[in-house]
DUF917 domain-containing protein (Kordiimonas pumila), 764 residues
Amino acid sequence: MFESDLKPVTLNQQALNDLAVGCAFLGSGGGGDPHYALLELSILIEKKGPDFHIDLIPASKLSDKDLVAPCGWLGAPTVSLEKLPSGTEALAGLEMLEEIMGREVNAVFPVEIGGSNGLAPLILAVKTGLPVVDCDGMGRAFPESQMVIFNVHGVSASPAVLTDAKGNSFVIGAVDNITEERVARAAAVSLGGICHLFEYVQSGKQVKDHAIHGTLSIAVEIGRSIREAKEKGADPFEALLDVMRSFPHYGAAGILFDGKIMDVKRETKQGFSVGHLLIEDFAGKNQMEIEFQNENLIARVGDKIYATVPDIISVMDRETAHTITTEQIKYGQRVKVVGVSAPSVLRTPEALEIMGPKAFGMSDRYRSIEALNGWKGSNDAQ
Amino acid sequence: MFESDLKPVTLNQQALNDLAVGCAFLGSGGGGDPHYALLELSILIEKKGPDFHIDLIPASKLSDKDLVAPCGWLGAPTVSLEKLPSGTEALAGLEMLEEIMGREVNAVFPVEIGGSNGLAPLILAVKTGLPVVDCDGMGRAFPESQMVIFNVHGVSASPAVLTDAKGNSFVIGAVDNITEERVARAAAVSLGGICHLFEYVQSGKQVKDHAIHGTLSIAVEIGRSIREAKEKGADPFEALLDVMRSFPHYGAAGILFDGKIMDVKRETKQGFSVGHLLIEDFAGKNQMEIEFQNENLIARVGDKIYATVPDIISVMDRETAHTITTEQIKYGQRVKVVGVSAPSVLRTPEALEIMGPKAFGMSDRYRSIEALNGWKGSNDAQ
């Protein structure tokens, strides 16, 4: 059901700007603000000259035996605001990974499409010439690395390679994927809170069978819809909802709340940015509370739940229609909360065990965002 | 100054029993109770038949280009009381280390002579046939892995290989030795609190130049002196002090306190067993307080300090003259506290930076145990 028929997609600077906007949206508040990654990518591309562009290849172009490396950053997004990368982390990790595997890596892709992590493999691709596969492992972002579709399908996270800005490197050989997350998180915390990670290294066949396909080009489309609506003076939220309803993996989408940030409680704890935020509507009557662990996990008004993981909850600036990631939320911001149905592969009983409300210690059973809000069903739910 | 002229030493079961007693003593309360390691070793040797024995080789027998791997366990000794090893940790780590180094390891030795860690490489040696070098890296035990003579001499702790009882493995490539400790500790905590570790892997030349030589056979002598004194009905403490005064690395030795354990505060925190204990003399007049972090760090009565790291502070059962490691200290035990001067290489300004009182956050400047107690100087202090 995931076999993508997408053609290779060419990304120029404008497409990359759009991609950053789309990744922030799909991140459900997490994955880190893509601002810095976009700057780094833009500088790299500018140096390559005006005709340079990045090609995304569909997974169908991979050979079954290709070695494909998902990558991204692990840690608390709050840390990434102050602790900038050195730019050497991913390359050092790639070299080490190739040494361990005894062969070259053939392609990379984002382990999660959310936030700056959606852009991470593109930076590596510009530096190395490696192709980027148009897919990811989550169809959004999740805070813990075992919350990935490859784990649902029994792919091993190990060997994983963790590298940091100072040149430290760690190879993790964990017997299970929860242990991989736990050790990687502990190591990242001990190194200052954020590290680059290769994990769930897999064959081309596994990428074709299990990845969530087309999500990089979907993110570009999201950014473009918002930008074009604003250029035309149209409502960017209407454009966003329309385009989200058109994508195969998503479908159900709507505005959950409209108001002003009244309170934020956020702490950086055990390698995560955790807390909750309160949004009050402009009538001053109702408040939506959103709990987050890097990503927004649950949105409720009083006792009524509007959305929970794995469905996407994105808090967006109501003027620019750009997502505000959880580490950037501040008192006084005027926002709209947009909810979108998660890809159906994240909603199976097996997937919900790993990335549903229970996996976050919530007692609430998962109910789909469309059921909670009386919306039309998601596109791939049937 | 460390060049050993010791002959190869042959260890039979009785010598191993003596070694365990000596290692517990030199551990300064740390390194873990050697009871379990001795059991494991005894079973392995029994299976090999009555004529089997372990040979210790002096470092002078190493070739300069040999690859030599110090090893031991990292974690809180309190954890090791309940979480037993699987027996596969060291072998799995050795295999991984050889793969990383691209060559075979030629010999092993204990990274610290203290407690069960003094016996750890012997277990590996029986399983693999590898020779054990008669030396260690501390001349005692220390809680943190950068507190080792090789770090004073600029040897890199990396690549280090951490393995656990479940089959997890972790290869650490740290840019400095403090980071190696920090990440290894964080990983060990995340894996349940105790792991096997190869670190400071070095050449035969480095072992000859930097290791603290002869400490395994010294530990055997310590155990034998105590045992033989008891067999003869003599005072084992007198025998212990006599033998400690005779060794080149040590020299100053005495009984610091005699009394009953009145209070123990101990918690397992951040991968260490930390706390303090109070011993009251039998007249009920004075109390000695000892602070510990895995190892005993400082002993004082009121304001008067009797000993601090790196000098050795060993709390011993006053009947058996066996050391009680910090995780085994209990209310009511009747004990003598024995102090011994540390090897002079641990007392240089460079070494004290790494393993002196300041390294443990104490404001007290280091003063030698012989100066604090008005004893004759240590043997290698001149």
